[in-house]
């Protein structure tokens, strides 16, 4: 029966159908690729939001469940860090203005943009260093991961956010490298995606800061 | 020039060298096959574990020769200890749910056919795609590492309820490093699945060929797309849950562990944690996971049914919308796993209603499938038989959902074999039937050789009858109140049930043996099968417009243009009763 | 082959339904005051589910029988009414079913969980631990002694961590491995978990409730039939889970008093 | 050259063994362990969850945390030489713990460091043995009926509480000791440590509920010295 069940091989197999790639489609493919990295980053942001939503709702449940919740005073350095992160978003915007503007606002647009990008990278690193400092200060007060539920959540949330920021820093470095080497292909898309991600990190941090400050 | 730059911009160059071609491949087709192979390996292991469990349940004092080689402490003299039974149970559940039901229908077939069916040359992020497979593989290796460590695998079931799963080695054998490995493995698995889901979504949104509107995508593409949306949320919640569990175990935090627990005569040094928190986080992932397992099979089966019926469904849209609403509802029902868990009894009612509501889209889909069969001319072959078998299984497993969706009935049926029968049929067997159907349907496209029909149909009959013999009786046991997850039946009332248990065990061993036919068929056909034509089933979708197996860039550097809805069957075209999506000839209307 | 599929499917469907229809496998007789509502709900659901099951399987078999492997080029037709009909039918029938089960059918649940125990209900504390249940009666003073986890000493049968040396209330507490209760008297069971999650399940009582560590729950019920029934754990709690059980001993009032005296004398 | 050294070393070891091992006809320490006050009332064990064990007893057995004999005799006390006697190599025959009727026989099992330990299950149900060792390596194994005995040994001195995770009432004690000079007080509270070479010894008595007591004793020859221990009993 096996032979009758499907159509036998047609020989020779016909050439592949479909049009040869017309010049008009090149743009489409490119924008497809760019669109992909854009929607890719948005989907990623969605997933990250979901994770942190889960963690913070866990925090609120835990706060209600046990009688052992003791509020910890947030280290003041956090606010400096927050400022650094917000500034970095601003510098990143400047970089975008300089680099992605068509036609270039000024001849030296790209070098200027690179400068702003460096600044962003620096501020990002400052933020991460500051978060470490905050941990050190807490540890100095004898507040460790397992000391009490509030400190547990503090370390978990800051650590996970910090890791995401580090990922952002790596991406930034990549972008800087690419632009410096001025590789034409798909530069814009990666850059845009990284920018979106970086701004999101700032927003996420504000949210976390508010959650950590709340005293239910 | 412009074109080549465009190619580089998005499409990777043809793979060079063995490693790039077959191991660290960026080609979605190779990655799909790798996922399939991993699923196959996992399902074989899971099946052997279930054999051991069933055997032990009905012949508890019979030695299983050679088993003490696998674990000296777990099976002294070849007799399975209670804790080792639970280890087998935990590993069976984890392997099957994560590495089979999530990998095979979704990651394997999805990776292989989603890009082709939308006319793309690859996934949006080929490197992520490769990473997601290798991450998953690492997760798999970490998990089975638990078999070889002296401690043995964990014993807290695939749901790993805290505090049993959180307190560490005092909770019993396997709850030391075995449990750590479990938690770490699942965390890694989450990362792999998130990367995969992200890739699927971006690909579907942005890489569709010219003319391939969303509504022109084949139903299985839709299923994979919806599934990846669900997976994105589900695993994004399970990941932090696993991290918290790992911290409770290794860093001494108390997220899930309350105070004053005395385990193995030791007062545990934790305080204030909430065991229900774990249950909520887990089931918030856990219930959508059920649909991650079943939706792709629904899509595959619809795809195959339409082709075998030689006419479109009554309405493909209704199927798609039903899958969407199921996916949407799946976020409001996790609490129905916790009716008797001590959750506020009022919220049980709140959870029960959407759960029952899910039966509406499910019924609509079933009726659409049935109704579409009317007046068709159904081709019978291994693929379509398994597709029809899927409908039957889906119904059988679905109706028992009526019972468990109701808190009041759940009081007596919760944690009995009724539940086991329910989810094995609807989530296990049904979605595996989808995988079998897909394999028989697409094997030719994937390997260039057709699978052997005779063996295929023999495999179907044994599996179809066998699975009913195994899982229907589970419901009867449950109705008497036979508890699940018992390594021996010491209750007074279980004596009379043992004949039924023996019947199940024998059926399980037999059905398991029948799967060897399938595996043999896979290997035999891979090398000796009849050469596969380009379009063996006279299908209409894009995967049938390219050679079998497809070239590394699917469409040979050309870009298909789509003119039709996916299923132009029963139209008197030039080539017979169907028009392909990419053929310019006008559709029937 | 199509015909064979149809025949096999019909056989499977009927064979699957037979043990249900003939009630070969059923719960033991209900001995509680609330259980009948659950049983009714169960049998109603069984009718609806059975109907849907047989209906769908037989229709599937019939269509495959009729429409499989027809001659080449046979005229293909469509179900009269099409998708609209199907969807409407699903909405009306299943919707009605869902409404019936989901809304009207919650009475049984309400009976168990929304009616508070009567004040004169007999309070008994149940403690679940790996891997046994123990039950505590307040004794003559009617007060339960406080629980001190650090005082738990199973080797010395101090399962609840009582401190009789310093806590007078705990001295007369009666601790038992079986749950002895008087018939036709409401019992208010205070549930406490010693280590991990467990569950309290008595089939005849139609009661199942988890023990959750750190969260003290309670159930209440009235047993109407004298006898000895099995209490089993249904929440995976570790290696001895399968063997975690106890007995519910429903006695006549005076037998129960005798039993209490006997237990008190052992203190 | 080297061989000569080896030979000397060998001689040295032999000599050491000769001096430390029990000498027949050495001195003896004997005595009686008693209690004062009212010991905790031993409670009957409800084995109804394990019918295969429960049916072995006409009247339910009681707990064994404090086992007493006539005129205040205290049973199950481990009396051993904690200082003064050198460590000894373990005997080759193994110490045996039997699980019968869901109880540990004996309730207190004393044996030497590195002496083979054998655990048997004579019940129709599967047991779990969980010695809660703190100094030694802790393990936790189940033993279904019909499986070979569990064989193990401990390499450090320790008093280890033993429990069965499946049957919460099953508790016992392993006394892992450094030398062969030990005894467990009998029904009448009596014990006897024979064959002790002359020397100054610390005799220690250990009870699972009442803890430790020590006394000094000096033996000059083959005489018999009497040492008695009195533990304070608490009602709760």
- How confident overall, as mean pLDDT of chain C? 92
Q: Helix/strand/pairing class of chain C, anyone?
A: alpha+beta
Class from helix and strand fractions of chain A: mainly alpha
- Terminal residue distance of chain C: 75 Å
**Biggest β-sheet of chain A, characterized?**
none
Radius of gyration of chain C: 27 Å
Mean pLDDT of chain A: 81
Q: Strand tally of chain C, please? A: 10
Overall number of structural domains of chain C: 2
Count of helical regions of chain C: 6
Q: Would you kindly provide a written description of the structure presented here, covering whatever features stand out?
A:
The complex is a heterotetramer of chains A (216), B (589), C (267) and D (236). With 216 residues, chain A is mainly α. Chain A is 73% helix and 0% strand. Chain A has one domain: Four Helix Bundle (Hemerythrin (Met), subunit A), CATH 1.20.120. In chain A, helix 1 runs antiparallel to helix 4 and helix 2 runs antiparallel to helix 5. The radius of gyration of chain A is 24 Å and the shape is elongated. About 12% of the residues of chain A have low confidence. By secondary structure, chain B is mainly α. Chain B has a single domain, classed as Cytochrome c oxidase-like, subunit I domain (Cytochrome C Oxidase, Chain A, Up-down Bundle), CATH 1.20.210. Chain B is globular and about 80 Å long. The N terminus of chain B is likely disordered. Chain D has 236 residues and is mostly beta strands. Chains B and C meet through helix 5, strand 1, helix 10, helix 12 and helix 13 of B and helix 1, helix 2, helix 3, helix 4 and strand 7 of C.
Write a brief caption for the model.
Chain A is mainly alpha-helical. Chain A has 5 helices and no strands.
Give the secondary structure arrangement, pairings included.
The complex is a heterotetramer of chains A (216), B (589), C (267) and D (236).
Chain A: H1 23-65, H2 77-100, H3 109-140, H4 149-180, H5 187-213
Helix pairs in contact in A: 1-4, 1-5, 2-3, 2-5, 3-4, 4-5
Chain B: H1 2-10, H2 17-23, H3 28-58, H4 67-70, H5 82-101, H6 103-117, H7 126-148, H8 177-206, H9 219-250, E1 262-263, E2 266-267, H10 275-309, H11 316-329, H12 345-357, H13 359-373, H14 382-404, H15 407-413, H16 417-447, H17 453-480, H18 498-528, E3 568-573, E4 576-579
Antiparallel strand pairs in B: 1-2, 3-4
Helix pairs in contact in B: 3-5, 3-6, 3-7, 3-18, 5-6, 6-8, 6-9, 6-16, 7-8, 8-9, 9-10, 9-11, 10-14, 10-16, 11-13, 13-14, 14-16, 14-17, 16-17, 17-18
Chain D: H1 2-20, E1 27-36, H2 51-54, E2 68-69, E3 73-74, E4 78-83, E5 95-100, E6 103-105, E7 108-112, E8 117-121, E9 127-131, E10 141-143, E11 150-152, E12 158-163, E13 171-177, E14 182-184, E15 190-196, E16 199-207, E17 211-219, E18 224-226, E19 229-232
